[in-house]
Write a structure and sequence with these properties.
single chain, 389 residues, alpha/beta, 12 strands, 37% helix, 15% strand, globular, P-loop_NTPase, DUF4143, AAA_14, AAA family ATPase
């Protein structure tokens, strides 16, 4: 019989779970799937979203648990799921699955043994369902969730709700936000702290430092089976990169700076990227997403920049924002003549005085300007690109 304290814990969490704001990813998930995985960086709202799913569900017997609950120190997930099924359970939500040793093997067994159970789990974005003890890639529907878009920030922090605008609508100046007369002051606040939903609770800097420490000192080392000394080198790499970004990576220089073999550097970069600490801008030579040569290293998002980098360069912030917001729905690659390429379009990012010279001979070139409220022709306001998800 399942300990009633687990139900009581869920009930307490549900009482504190609001429904007035729901992340963009909620409507993209096929909640009827038998095995659903939701991964993403720390602090982007994965736990809140699955609790909202429980509150909004009208049918079924649901239970939420966290994989690091002391209950699992002497109970296996397999036995727990067996008991849940016997009690009429239909939907089991397991938060932070990466904190449970042997998670992939046991999830596979639960999936195979209980075809009537809907199993939903969340985990660190470092987590790889193909690399665990059991390959779940043919069974699990996986969803990657990133932090708040500027559109979501407007709703959560300012109470201004608006729809998503497609890239074509953005490029054709069709972004209209009723209730947002002057977007730039709000946009500045978003760049400073608006990527993480928990910023609304205050103490942003302290919370962010905890996110960084837990990600680099716990999540990545746990996944990659790193020693503590290696984890410290990884953190040093993050500090170095944050001071240089956007940065054309030199494997040899980074290896020398942090004292590791140059053969390890590419893996460390990918770990930091998947953990939501950096963004790797690749070229388009591979023809496949995320497999091209790395051309630039960015800090993952402007809010993280504000914590890692004292007085970050405004030009770097602008590029970081554009890349971060656009990569969710589009393949963004480096440009040979400008900053970014998306499909047939080339984008040059700058302030309101940015000229057209660099892309005047480029077909489908666009100038993306900060510090302007509206645009015209090939000149597009930077803040528009935060309305894409």
């Amino acid at each position: 019989m399942i300990d009633n304290k687990l139900y009581e814990y869920m009930a307490e969490l549900l009482k504190r779970t609001p429904l007035d704001f729901i992340r963009y990813k909620y409507d993209e998930i096929n909640w009827n799937g038998r095995l659903i995985g939701i991964v993403g960086p720390r602090g982007v709202g994965k736990s809140t979203m699955i609790l909202q799913r429980i509150k909004l569900s009208k049918e079924g017997h649901h239970l939420y648990v966290s994989a690091d609950n002391i209950y699992f120190s002497n109970h296996s997930l397999i036995d727990f799921a067996d008991e849940f099924i016997k009690e009429g359970g239909t939907h089991l939500y397991i938060d932070e699955i990466h904190k449970y040793a042997g998670w992939s093997r046991e999830l596979k067994q639960i999936y195979d043994m209980h075809p009537s159970l809907n199993l939903i789990f969340t985990g660190s974005s470092v987590l790889d369902i193909k690399k665990g003890e059991a390959d779940l890639s043919r069974r699990a529907l996986m969803y990657m969730m990133q932090g708040l878009s500027f559109r979501e920030y407007l709703q959560l922090f300012e109470g201004i709700k608006t729809r998503v605008f497609s890239l074509d609508e953005i490029l054709n100046h069709q972004v209209e936000i009723p209730g947002l007369e002057h977007p730039l002051p709000v946009f500045r606040a978003y760049l400073d702290h608006g990527y993480y939903p928990f910023a609304i609770e205050g103490d942003f800097m302290q919370r962010m430092l905890q996110v960084i420490d837990q990600t680099v000192e716990v999540d990545i080392p746990q996944y990659a089976d790193m020693k503590a000394s290696t984890a410290r080198k990884l953190k040093r790499m993050l500090v170095i990169l944050s001071g240089l970004a956007p940065y054309k990576p030199s494997v040899e220089n980074l290896a020398t700076e942090i004292g590791v073999s140059k053969n390890n550097v590419p893996d460390y970069l990918v770990y930091l990227e998947r953990a939501g600490m950096i963004g790797l801008l690749r070229d388009d030579t591979s023809g496949m997403r995320n497999l091209g040569k790395v051309e630039k290293v960015y800090v993952d998002n402007p809010s993280l920049m504000s914590v890692l980098t004292p007085n970050p360069n405004i030009g770097n912030i602008r590029e970081t924002f554009f890349y971060n917001q656009m990569r969710e729905k589009q393949d963004v690659t480096s440009s040979r003549v400008s900053d970014f390429t998306i499909g047939d379009y080339t984008f040059e990012i700058g302030g309101k005085k940015k000229g057209k010279k660099q892309i005047e001979d480029v077909k489908n070139g666009r100038i993306v300007k900060d510090d302007i409220e509206t645009g015209h022709g090939i000149i597009i306001p930077l803040w528009y690109f935060g309305m894409n998800y």
